[in-house]
C-alpha cells in the first residue's frame, strides 16, 4: 500500500485528482466511483480541471459502487442524483457511459448479475475510488461481508443508516437495503484509491493498518490487493502511531 498523508481535505482532493487525471490521459479509461462526502472535493477538482484545463471525459466509462434499494433514480438522495448533481452534469461524459446499479429493478438478483457482468465487460476499472465507513465498510459491504462476494443486495448496518441520516430528513427515511459491488468485485480494479478524511475515520484507518485481514472489518480486504493508494488527511491519520 502506498500512503500519502495530506495536511487537509483540499490537499487530499488535489492529490486524488492528480491520480485520476493520469488515467484520463488514456482517453478510454474506466473509473470506479463512490458517493458520500469524501470524494466530493475530488469531483469538484476534476470539474475545475475540465472547465479550466481541457480535461475531457468524452470517452470515459464510469462504474459506481452502489445504490439504495427502493429509491427512484430521480429521488433527491439516490446515488444517481448524487452523481448527476455532484459530477456528471458538470463534465462532458455522455450519460450512457455512466453506470450505477438500479435500486428499483425487479428481480434484484437479476440486476446484481447484470451489474457484475457489466463490470467484467466494461471494466474492471483502471482505478476504483473508495471512501471508508466508520465501521470499515467499503461500498456497502458491511462487517461480516464475504470477501468472495460479487454484486449483491445488502442490509445496511444501523450505524451506516445513522451516519447517512444527515442526507435525509430522518433516519427512518434512510433505505434499509442497498445493491453494492461485492468485495471481490472491488478487488478486480487495477488500482484502488482509498480516501479518508476527518477524525471520524481515524479509528478505521488505524484498524486498517494495524488490525490484520478479517471479514469483520471489510476494508482489510484491501490488504490483499497489490496496488492500493491510501490518501488520508492529518485528522484521519491522527490515531496511527
Ligand atoms: C459510497 C460508499 C460508502 C462510502 C462510505 C463513506 O458510494 O460506498 O462506502 O464511501 O460510507 O462515506 P462518507 O464519504 O460520506 O464518509
Automatic annotation (TrEMBL):
Organism: Jeotgalibacillus proteolyticus
Domain Glucosamine/galactosamine-6-phosphate isomerase: 14-226
GO terms for MF: glucosamine-6-phosphate deaminase activity; identical protein binding
Gene3D superfamilies: 3.40.50.1360
Catalytic residues of the enzyme: 66 (proton acceptor), 135 (for ring-opening step), 137 (proton acceptor), 142 (for ring-opening step)
Gene field: nagB
Transmembrane parts of this sequence: none
PANTHER family on file: GLUCOSAMINE-6-PHOSPHATE ISOMERASE
Pfam families associated with the record: Glucosamine_iso
Origin: domain of life: Bacteria
CDD domains in the cross-refs: GlcN6P_deaminase
GO biological-process terms attached to the record: carbohydrate metabolic process; glucosamine catabolic process; N-acetylglucosamine catabolic process; N-acetylneuraminate catabolic process
NCBIfam families with a match to the protein in the record: nagB (TIGR00502)
Coiled-coil ranges per UniProt: none
Protein name, per record: Glucosamine-6-phosphate deaminase
Pathways involved: Amino-sugar metabolism; N-acetylneuraminate degradation; D-fructose 6-phosphate from N-acetylneuraminate: step 5/5
